[in-house]
Amino acid sequence: MLEKIVERFCDAPTLYRYLLQTEKIVEKRALEGKNDLSNMSLALTCVFGFIISVLFTFMPFILSMDTFTFSLIGITMSMMMIGIWMVPYFDILLIPVNYPIIAHTPVPSHTYFLVKLTQILTYTTLLLGSLNLMPAIGGIWVHKGEFSFFRLLFPFVYLPIVFMSGFFTIGVMTTFAGYLTKLYSKRILRNIAQYAQFIFPALFPVTFILLPRLLPDLSKDKLASVLKWFYALPNGWFAGAVSLALGAIERHFLILTGLAIVSTLILVLVPLRSIAKSYTEYLSHLLESGSRQKSKIRVKMPLFGRMFQNRTIRAGLCLCAVYMRRDRNMLRQFFASLGSVIMLVVMLDQGWVLHSFAIGLSPGFSAIFYFVGFSIVGGFIASIRYSEHWKASWMLALAPLSTTHDLWRGVQAVGLLYIVVPCTLLMFCIATVLWGVLGIFYILPVSIMLINFVILYPKPVSGLPLAEEFVQKQVTGETMIPFLSSLFITGVFIGIQFLTYLLNIWVYYGFYCVTVVGGLIGFIYFLEKNKRTEEIVDA
Amino acid sequence: MIQVSNLTKKYGQNTAVDDISFEVKQGEIVGYLGPNGAGKSTTLKMLVGLLHPTSGEIAVAGYDAQTELLELKRHIGYVPEEAQLYEHLTLVEHLQLIGRLYHLEERLIAQKIEELAKLFDMAFQANQRISGFSQGMRQKCIIMSALMHNPDVLFLDEPFTNLDVGTVTLMKALLQRLADLGKTILYCTHILEVAETLCPRIMIINSGKLIADAPVEELRQQTNQTALNEIFAQLTETTGIDEKTEEAIRIVTENTLDA
């Protein structure tokens, strides 16, 4: 149905249908080679959205709220979720991979734009459906959970308006993205999308910390005055439209409904139309490399590269350090693992980390450090095996390397120098602020355990970094192992700390010493073992 | 310098390279020709150690490919046909990586990068990412990588693809001079004009079998043809070109459906 509606706005409907059909086939076949989890990512997102919506649906039964408040919360949640979830899908619009294939053919810009927009709107519709189906039904019981026959109309009013608000969100994002393409190169745009993916979800815990401080004691009267602030925002306009359609004929709802309709119309008729007209021009502009030429050749070595005399280790280190900074997939993994840092901030803020050790409900500073470090290091090492440029590993295979040990040591060096060391320093600073010089003793055991984790992390089968293809990735097994292990080992670590502290403080100190000394012995043992293996191979 | 005997590569039931044997002496440039899918690139991949032969023996620069592969790799340079590169690296970073993998001194690497980049007119792009390079620039990048460590034997698989005229001319002269200096070059192509001017000796492979191995003059006498493309067509039994051309013209120019 969506396609039929969009087709009406199209200059060349036949071309639109053919192009959309082709895009669908290409998309479907591209997923065929991928693992089950990649195939199911959209379905999982919808399921997640559905679960959130079910929780929200029960709100009218617990809290007393009117139609406007219920609709406002539903529409705000829906607009925010759509905004966040659609960021990765904006590559379809911003940097369509298949554009160079049709760039030289007489396809009108407007038509191609609508094809791409339809693809995004299809995903949007699915997500909107999963997010709003249950709240639309739950809305019937708004007003202290009371049922009335008039309120049976709620789903028929709420659903079209919430869909309109979702499409409005996509329209605003498309307009914003369309103007960004004028300003920035392909690489910068991709980076912006990458950072946005991280920053938006990170705002959730921040609001979790900030909101209670902003609204310390929100009474019902104060809530009404706070809600008025939303009249200035699009979510308030659409919520007003729901109230008006359900019989709340009031002047401010009339104005809000007018604003919702006018703003949507302006959005479609002015900026989106303008972007559609010159869309292919933007894309052609993006195809240009756009990088500035520099006449002076700069041959530099990364700072830590100088630390290693072995040139193969240095090669591995430099290659991985560059990919860690520039590869999109690795950055994504890295950003995801930074979520644990946000957790740490929240825990510190809530006063859940009062001690260095696990006591009561507090997991303890050391355990938190262990979890943060393990997540970031694990995220890095798990992703360094894979690259979209995996075919380039022929160079590593062609090189006269007796073993791949040294290349992998380069990876380990990156893990230690670029992650473990900064992580340790950061935690040391926090620990020093909290406990003074003693902080170093709380950092030491975990640092040693992290170093051992980096050294012991299993090498890929090929032994070469960045040499495996993403479609071979067994997401269910391989990439979940580091995360699940981190949870498990952190749990065990907290458990032992907790137990030893409960038994006797000396048992706790004993455990501490065993961790530090055992870790150091393990570190030296594995270094020696590696050296011996290399000597045997060389011989 | 290159010794190949009874080399065979099978992919299941399909035989890509079928029992071929040849020898290339030091300082020789040998053209390795054949139609698409004849087995040229497969042979080269086995010679450089990227593929394991199903059977047969390979020795390059005096090193056996099975027992002394590491030493063999130290003495060869390879330009593959469709090379993938680490796109997030800059040209400088890429050449540094290659130099380090071949254990060159850092200062020598830096010096070679500067000189090679200037030689191949890539000084302005040296600090740009490979992802922004044109096909020709990528090809130059691969050629520079193959020359970085001063190899004794060069395996070149369609090395002039996408290169501009100036670079092709430079490369032809460079290969000639390298051969004069005692470097051995196995030059794999299906562009016969370049092979004719550059390679005194030609080997032709068709459907995995080596069907000719002789100096160009000898091939001319054997086939009673003067041009290499005619020799090639005769040996690979490429016939019916005129009929195919006519058929192609008919297909291209037709604007109405057949009755």
Write up this protein.
The complex is a heterodimer of chains A (539) and B (259). Helices cover 74% and strands 0% of the residues of chain A. By secondary structure, chain A is mostly helical. The longest helix of chain A has 34 residues, at 505-538. The relative contact order of chain A is 0.08. Chain B has two domains: 2-75 and 152-253, Rossmann fold (3-Layer(aba) Sandwich); 85-150, no CATH class. Helix content of chain B is 40%, strand content 24%. In chain B, 44% of the residues are buried.
Which characteristics define this entry?
heterodimer; A: 539 residues; mainly alpha; 2 domains; B: Rossmann fold; 4-stranded antiparallel sheet; 10 helices; 10 strands
CATH architecture of the largest domain in chain B: 3-Layer(aba) Sandwich
- Characterize the main sheet of chain A: none
Largest beta sheet of chain B, briefly?
Answer: 6 strands, mixed
Largest interface: A-B, 34 and 41 residues
Element layout with pairings:
The complex is a heterodimer of chains A (539) and B (259).
Chain A: H1 2-8, H2 13-32, H3 36-39, H4 41-57, H5 59-62, H6 67-85, H7 91-94, H8 99-102, H9 109-138, H10 154-183, H11 186-214, H12 220-228, H13 234-245, H14 251-277, H15 279-287, H16 311-326, H17 328-337, H18 339-349, H19 365-384, H20 394-398, H21 405-435, H22 439-456, H23 475-503, H24 505-538
Helix pairs in contact in A: 1-9, 2-9, 4-9, 6-10, 6-13, 9-10, 9-14, 10-13, 10-14, 11-17, 11-18, 13-14, 16-21, 17-19, 19-21, 19-22, 19-23, 21-22, 22-24, 23-24
Chain B: E1 2-11, E2 14-24, E3 29-33, H1 40-47, E4 55-60, E5 63-64, H2 69-74, E6 76-79, H3 91-101, H4 106-119, H5 135-147, E7 153-157, H6 165-180, E8 184-189, H7 192-198, E9 201-206, E10 209-215, H8 216-223, H9 228-235, H10 241-253
Parallel strand pairs in B: 3-8, 3-9, 6-7, 7-8
Antiparallel strand pairs in B: 1-2, 1-4, 4-5, 9-10
Helix pairs in contact in B: 3-4, 8-9
